[in-house]
Amino acid sequence: MGAKSNPDLRPGNPYPFQGELKNPFADVLKEWSNVKTNPPAKSPQDRAQFNAGTTSIQAADENGWVISVTPSGG
Q: Counting Cβ atoms within 10 Å, is residue 32 exposed (0-12), middle (13-18) or buried (19+)?
């Protein structure tokens, strides 16, 4: 395991695994850059809608330890 996180990691897109649903932010994710502090958006309304969601993060290790974190509030 490295001593530093990978700056090239981007948010994932779960929509291909959810049947016929289409990701309304696919274009934002395509343009995502970890160099910027905020995701790109076409308008202030797009940015507000993107930041209004909830993020959920889960991780498990080889020993069976699991953590789930769900911060809200953009």
A: middle
- Residue owning tokens 């076409």: 42
CB 59 within 8 A of CB 67: yes
Query: What is the tens place of the pLDDT at every residue in 18-58?
Result: 888 888 888 888 877 665 555 555 677 776 776 666 778 88
Tens digit of each residue's pLDDT (9 = 90 or more) over 8-17: 777 778 888 8
Structure tokens at 7: 């700056």
Q: Which amino acid is at 3?
A: A
- What torsion do the CA atoms of 11, 29, 35, 45 make, to the nearest 10 degrees? -110
Per DSSP bridges, beta strands 57-60 and 66-69 are antiparallel
Do residues 68 and 56 touch, judged by C-beta distance below 8 A?
A: yes
